[in-house]
Structure formats: structure tokens, C-alpha cells
Design a protein that fits this description.
The complex is a heterodimer of chains A (465) and B (68). Chain A contains 15 helices and 17 strands. With 465 residues, chain A is of the alpha+beta class. Chain A has one domain: Amidase signature (AS) domain (Amidase signature (AS) enzymes, Alpha-Beta Complex), CATH 3.90.1300.10. In chain A, the strands form four sheets. An eleven-stranded mixed sheet of chain A has the order 1-3-2-8-10-9-16-17-13-11-12, sandwiched between helices. Chain A is globular, with a radius of gyration of 20 Å. In chain B, 49% of the residues lie in helices and 0% in strands. Chain B is an all-alpha fold. The N and C termini of chain B lie far apart (50 Å). Chain B has a domain of 42 residues. Classes of the chains: A alpha+beta (465), B mainly alpha (68). At the A-B interface, α9, α10, α11 and α12 of A face α1 and α2 of B.
């Protein structure tokens, strides 16, 4: 059969082997399931493994090929999803104990269905912070997800199971969601690629909402092409999602090799150049050097944008869960409960002023992107903290660990911008990420820059041995 | 509320929770007050920022046309 170097293969290498007749999807699926069985107990990324269903899906891919039909652009690629995505036949937990008593989902989420139609083989559901309200995946109901590079440390969150599953080499691709940084933080801390597309670019139908004004979904992957290929098949308008941008598919995979000629790139200053550990800024400098970038620029009022995102998140998240907060607050995770309760009490004036500020801020961000095409910053202010660590030192100041992991991600998702967090290649044991940020709907720009960094060896996923 | 002292926060939490019929167990109240303070500090940054009257909130409500 095949000579696949599984340890080195990204998802698209597996797809090419399947499509080229050098491997069967079933063989890849069996190896994936075996690796999950052997390794997941140590990191706790999965909350559910679909053994029989995944093998049946893989067999269908093989049968399609045997019949001479096209098995799809992701044929045989194993993937898993944060457990807030609907998967037909599974109960959508969204990291909660409360939702565990709900009936199984009747159909797959829009994005899950798109990947499966493209030949992807769904192997399971992944751990997360309860209702996506966190940056660490220290889930009190299902246990913390551990960082595959150091199991005493967090995987980041809220899509921590997604980051850990990819960086442990369990799957090449996982779906996550991002409201304030929940794809980018775990991608950075686990050392993989994570794409938060433009707000409204990918449908959220069938994925549990957290704070709808800010909720995005997107892929975390082992290579830029894995992320791009998966992003491409998930695009397309969806009338069921009220914020779906309604844009046609704009494929990025074919454009990855175009390089960065003509792109104006700058490093973000001000808010994004302070309040972090030196290695976070060193990572940005390393990427800037690899791209030959010395220009710097500023997004005005980024700290205020973070504050506004926090107000909106608090109020929208609490409103969504108000009935359960009234009836069964004890069943919430202690790490989210008090924050949800407080969010229910936010005055409408605070919330609406934060939404008005967002319009003002959008105009500032638009002005920045008239001058540049791509921005760089740190993804997180530090590498992965220890599990249970309440406080940490940032730039000589003691701060709360959990909320401050999002200090650099929140102002950018507040602007709805497409962002690819890349893991910067270093010899350090703990991973760090740098977000490649572009103007709305220019996912092609962030993926092209990411692909160039990957080709130069300046960015690469760190897969735990 | 933008210059919230702890007693202001406690008074707001108690009154707003009552109005909202949201029971807050004694064991949870200190945490709720703590996070109300965190949100209030964030809200203070937002509220102090001057915005022109014509700046509308970002969400756009789109009426759904009824197909015959």
C-alpha cells in the first residue's frame, strides 16, 4: 500500500495519498483512531470519538474512489470539531453539563456538513470552555485539556480541544469558534495554525452561539494548506445565518503560492507592543524580519475596543443562558457561572454604547487598511500558563491569567478582521503565535503570508512527539 | 456606575437581580460582584468616549421580505 510518512504528513498529504490511490481512507482512519486511543487520555482533547461512524465514512470515500467518482477535495482527511458544533446523532454539549441532557442533533452544522461532503472523515468532538466563555479549556465538567507540549500547562481556549488534538498529531484539522480569541489563543499556545475568518464569512448555523455579535467559526490545522483547503470548502452564503455575508466562494488554496509581492505589511504598535512578555514581542520581530518588514502602524483605541468587546460579550452571553441561570445556576461551571450572572445585570446603555463604539472603531480600522494590507502583532502576551494558575506576571505587572490571554486578540475580532495565527518556529519548548491580520474579506492575504512564512521555515506547526 | 465602589456594585447586583427575577445564591454573590466590577471598569472606558449623534450601533436589523 502506501509509503506515507504519517509523522510528517499534513492533512493534504493524506488527501493526496487517498486521491492518488496510494492509501485508503479506511487505513488512515484506523491509524487516526488508534493514535487517539493511545494518546488522548494524557491530554483530554476529545469528549467523544465516533469510531464506527468514522470508519463507515472512510469506507464511503474508498467506495466512491473504487466506483471511479470524485471523492472530494478533502477525501479521507480526518477531522474533529469543538463540541459546540452540531454533529448528527450526537448531543451538542457546548462544554456544558446542562446541554448534556438535550437530544442528539438532527443534522450536522453547516460547516461540518461542508467538510464531510468534501470527503473529510469526522472522528469526534472536542473539549472546550463551558459555552466558549474562557481562554484556557479548564472545563470543570469534562476536565482540563492539557497542552501536548507540556501537560502541566493549558492548551488555551475556548477551542482548547481543537488546538491540542492538532498539536498532539491526533488529527490534522479541527474546527473551532472564536468570539474574542478562542481559535487564535489555543492555536498559538498549542503551536498550530488557526484561522478566524472575517465576521460573517463562514456560516454559524448549527454551531452553538456565545455572543452572536462577535461569534465566528474557523479551522485549526497542521499546515496553511490544510487550513486554506478546509476554509475554501466551508465558504458560501447561508440564509439561515443572519450575519452570513452572502458572498460567493473566493478560493484561497489556489493562491497560496502567490507570495507577498505588492502587499504592504506593518507591525502593530501601541496597545499591541506593551503588556506582554519579551518573548511574545520577539516572536513578532522574528516574523517581521522574515518578511522584511520594518513599518509600524497603530489601530486607535484598541484597549477601548477590548473593553467594548467585553461588555457586549458579557451581556449577550448572559442573555442567551438567562433561563438556565435562573433555574439551575449550580449546574454551570464555577469558572463561568459568576461571569454569566454578572453579565445578566449589565445596563442596556453600556451595551448599546459599546455597539455604537464598534461602528466608530470600524471606521478607524478601515482607515488603517487604506494604508496597509497586512498587520502583525502577538497572538498572546505569553506562552501557555500552568493549569490552575490564577495570576501571572506580564511586563512586570501581576494580572489575572485567564482574561489576559485575550488582551491582543479581542480588539481584532471586535473589528471582524480575518486573522491567521501562525506558530513561530523557535527552539523554545513552549509555542508562541503571531497573528497575520488583513482587511475584511481578504483571507487570501493572511493565507498567502502564512504560506510564505511556512515555505521559508519561519512558521510551522509544532507537533508533540 | 462608572466610578463604582464596592457598595455601589453590591447595590446594583442586588437590585438588578431582583428586577430580573434572577436568584443569586449567597455563595455566588461575591464572585458576581467581583465580575460586575470588572465589567463596570470596561464599561467606564466605553462610556467616557464621546461619540457623535449619528454613530449608530453596529448590528443591522434586516426586515425579511415576504414572498407571495
Amino acid at each position: 500500500m502506501s509509503a506515507i510518512e504519517y509523522a510528517a504528513a499534513d492533512g493534504m498529504a493524506l488527501v493526496e495519498a487517498v486521491r492518488g490511490g496510494r492509501a485508503r481512507a479506511r487505513e488512515i482512519c484506523e491509524r487516526t483512531l488508534a493514535r487517539i486511543a493511545a494518546r488522548d487520555a494524557a491530554i483530554n482533547a476529545f469528549t467523544r470519538v465516533r469510531t464506527e461512524q468514522a470508519l463507515a465514512d472512510a469506507d464511503r470515500v474508498d467506495a466512491t474512489i473504487a466506483a471511479g467518482r470524485d471523492p472530494g477535495p478533502l477525501a479521507g482527511m480526518p477531522f474533529a470539531v469543538k463540541n459546540l458544533f452540531d454533529v448528527a446523532g450526537l448531543t451538542t454539549l457546548a462544554g456544558s453539563k446542562i446541554n448534556a441532557s438535550r437530544p442528539p442533533a438532527a443534522r450536522d452544522a453547516f460547516t461540518v456538513a461542508a467538510i464531510r461532503r468534501a470527503g473529510g472523515v469526522l472522528v469526534g468532538a472536542l473539549n472546550m470552555d463551558e459555552y466558549a466563555y474562557g481562554f484556557t479549556t479548564e472545563n470543570s465538567h469534562y476536565g482540563p485539556t492539557r497542552n501536548p507540549h507540556d501537560p502541566t500547562r493549558v492548551a488555551g481556549g475556548s477551542s482548547g480541544g481543537s488546538g491540542a488534538a492538532v498539536s498532539a498529531g491526533l488529527v490534522p484539522l479541527a474546527l473551532g469558534s472564536d468570539t474574542n480569541g478562542s481559535i487564535r489563543v489555543p492555536a498559538a499556545l498549542c503551536g498550530v495554525f488557526g484561522l478566524k475568518p472575517t465576521y460573517g464569512r463562514l456560516s454559524r448555523t448549527g454551531s452553538a452561539l456565545f455572543a452572536a455579535s462577535l461569534d465566528h467559526v474557523g479551522p485549526l490545522g497542521r499546515s496553511v494548506r490544510d487550513v486554506a483547503a478546509t476554509y475554501d470548502v466551508m465558504q458560501g452564503p447561508d440564509p439561515s445565518d443572519p450575519v452570513s455575508a452572502g458572498r460567493p466562494v473566493e478560493a484561497c488554496l489556489p493562491r497560496l503560492g502567490e507570495g507577498i509581492g505588492g502587499l504592504r505589511i506593518a507591525v502593530l504598535d501601541s496597545h499591541f507592543a506593551k503588556g506582554g512578555e519579551p518573548e511574545a514581542f520577539a516572536a513578532v520581530a522574528q516574523v517581521a524580519a522574515a518578511l522584511g518588514v520594518s513599518r509600524r502602524t497603530t489601530i486607535p483605541e484598541a484597549a477601548r475596543a477590548r473593553a467594548a468587546a467585553m461588555v457586549i460579550t458579557s451581556a449577550e452571553g448572559a442573555t442567551l443562558h438567562l433561563a438556565d441561570l435562573r433555574a439551575r445556576a449550580e449546574d454551570f461551571d464555577p469558572l463561568t457561572r459568576d461571569r454569566f450572572l454578572a453579565g445578566a445585570l449589565v445596563p442596556a446603555t453600556w451595551y448599546l454604547q459599546a455597539q455604537r463604539f464598534r461602528s466608530w472603531y470600524r471606521a478607524q480600522v478601515t482607515a488603517v487598511f487604506r494604508e496597509v494590507d497586512v498587520l502583525l502583532a502577538p497572538t498572546t502576551p505569553c506562552p501557555a500558563p500552568r493549569i490552575g494558575q490564577e495570576r501571572m506576571m506580564l511586563d512586570g505587572v501581576e494580572v489575572l491569567t485567564r482574561p489576559n490571554l485575550g488582551v491582543f486578540t479581542q480588539p481584532l475580532s471586535f473589528g471582524g478582521l480575518p486573522i491567521l495565527s501562525v506558530r513561530v518556529t523557535t527552539s523554545a519548548a513552549l509555542a508562541l503565535g503571531v497573528p497575520i491580520i488583513a482587511a475584511p474579506f481578504r483571507e487570501d492575504h493572511v493565507l498567502r503570508v502564512g504560506a510564505l512564512l511556512e515555505a521559508k521555515g519561519a512558521a510551522a506547526a509544532a507537533i508533540a512527539a | 456606575m462608572t466610578d463604582s465602589s464596592r457598595s455601589d456594585l453590591e447595590a446594583h447586583v442586588d437590585a438588578a437581580a431582583k428586577l430580573l427575577a434572577l436568584p443569586i445564591a449567597p455563595a455566588h454573590r461575591p464572585g458576581v460582584v467581583l465580575y460586575m466590577g470588572v465589567i463596570a471598569a470596561a464599561a467606564a472606558l466605553v462610556m467616557e468616549f464621546p461619540l457623535a449623534d449619528e454613530v449608530e450601533a453596529a448590528p443591522v436589523f434586516a426586515p425579511a421580505p415576504v414572498e407571495p
